[in-house]
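Lecture notes, part 5. Sequence design as translation. It can be helpful to think of inverse folding as translation between two languages: the language of shapes and the language of residues. The source text, in structure tokens, appears below.
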């Protein structure tokens, strides 16, 4: 019997299982049990098959606190060196993000700093950002490359991302974003650069560094035709794709990534009704990034009602990056999604868990259900809406990944 005991059991929790057709899937006076990193019980304390201390080695009384699935940040660029605070000041003086990028600043200035940092320095600069996200409830992070823009530096970024996960004890999913911006050595030759990106991809993949492939399809990024070539290279390797789509203009990016059966179209402020329909048909998730919307003082809202109407799942992520979204809390991104995009708090929480996991192609997390990973957060609040209500603050009492406490 002793060997059968669960590793841990939390009792007296307000459980938001998110395992319901809609809403929070609340269980009042709930219990959550886990063994070998997986959930074995998520339900009422009353319905437990035996007394808690008989069932589990460790019993924790949550004292009525809210417990949710661990948050999944499905879109970050958190591995980088340097800062773009000066660019923030320029924008407040009237310069636009596009104008700064065209003048050689923006993404390319972070490329200069990231290339100059060695692997150790890059890890040291990136670790506090990842740690902050975990401290506010994230138990899975996605990290993109895209500030190296040559083979060695893209590899350095992806390795750093993997190392972050090992250091913090959480899964990090890596996305190759070689097609993020045109590096200076390819000035005037974007197609030549795309050839290089397509050449690096199989080599990086062979080293186990790539879980998905992304591109920046935009006037200041790459054309639809260039993006298509990157996607074809991904498809040849069986790698899933996602896209920075329709952020600053409608470049028909959402329809393009849907055509490739993509995991997600991200940003999507300027996505048309046709793009939404294509996403719905392909099962492509809309990843909303309200941090970038907020920081760039954008005014065009993503087509939220159309996503709802067509049943396109909406995820919410930080887009943590030095240019458009220096945001270090996914809970804060949920808050911004509610205030700017009028998501309901339930939609925002589903967006940072269930739908975010789907945007990464992961079906073993995002809800509290037996069989899923024991990734969960105990919060110092009782109502789920309170997670989206507070701006800032220190609400996570403890963060558990695969049953182990990580913050
Ligand atoms: O998601 N849009 C392109 N990529 C990032 C910004 C990167 C940067 O400015 O450094 C984004 O907003
Ligand atoms: Fe991004």
């Amino acid at each position: 019997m002793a060997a059968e005991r669960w590793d841990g059991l939390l009792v007296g929790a307000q459980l938001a299982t998110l395992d319901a057709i809609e809403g929070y899937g609340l269980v009042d006076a709930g219990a959550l049990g886990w063994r070998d990193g997986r959930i074995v019980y998520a339900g009422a304390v009353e319905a437990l098959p035996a007394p808690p201390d008989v069932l589990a080695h460790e019993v924790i009384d949550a004292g009525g606190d809210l417990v949710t699935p661990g948050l999944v940040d499905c879109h970050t660029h958190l591995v980088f060196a340097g800062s773009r605070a000066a660019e923030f000041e320029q924008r407040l003086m009237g310069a636009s993000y596009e104008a700064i990028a065209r003048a050689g600043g923006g993404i390319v200035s972070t490329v200069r700093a990231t290339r100059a940092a060695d692997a150790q320095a890059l890890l040291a600069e990136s670790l506090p950002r990842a740690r902050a996200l975990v401290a506010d409830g994230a138990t899975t992070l996605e990290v993109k490359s895209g500030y190296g823009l040559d083979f060695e530096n893209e590899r350095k970024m992806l390795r750093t991302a993997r190392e972050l996960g090992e250091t913090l004890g959480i899964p990090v999913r890596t996305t190759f974003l070689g097609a993020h911006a045109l590096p200076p050595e390819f000035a005037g030759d974007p197609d030549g650069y795309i050839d290089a990106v397509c050449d690096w991809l199989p080599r990086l993949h062979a080293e186990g560094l790539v879980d998905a492939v992304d591109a920046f399809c935009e006037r200041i990024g790459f054309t639809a035709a260039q993006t298509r070539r990157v996607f074809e290279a991904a498809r040849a390797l069986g790698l899933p794709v996602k896209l920075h789509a329709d952020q600053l203009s409608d470049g028909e990016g959402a329809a393009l990534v849907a055509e490739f059966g993509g995991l997600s179209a991200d940003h999507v402020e300027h996505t048309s009704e046709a793009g939404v329909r294509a996403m719905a048909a392909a099962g492509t998730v809309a990843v909303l990034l309200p941090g970038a919307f907020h920081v760039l003082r954008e005014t065009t809202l993503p087509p939220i009602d159309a996503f709802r109407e067509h049943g396109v799942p909406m995820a919410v992520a930080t887009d943590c990056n030095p240019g458009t979204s220096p945001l270090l809390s996914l809970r804060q991104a949920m808050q911004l999604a509610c205030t700017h995009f009028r998501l309901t708090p339930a939609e925002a929480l589903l967006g940072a868990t269930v739908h975010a996991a789907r945007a990464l192609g992961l079906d073993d997390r995002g809800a509290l259900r037996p069989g899923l990973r024991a990734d969960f957060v105990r919060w110092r609040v009782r109502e789920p809406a309170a997670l989206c209500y507070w701006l800032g603050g220190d609400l996570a009492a403890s963060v558990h990944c695969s049953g182990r406490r990580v913050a």
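The translated text above is only one of many valid answers, since several sequences can fold into similar shapes. Residues 77, 106-107, 110, 216, 244, 247, 292, 319, 321-325 surround N-(iminomethyl)-L-glutamic acid (ligand 1) (CB under 6 Å).
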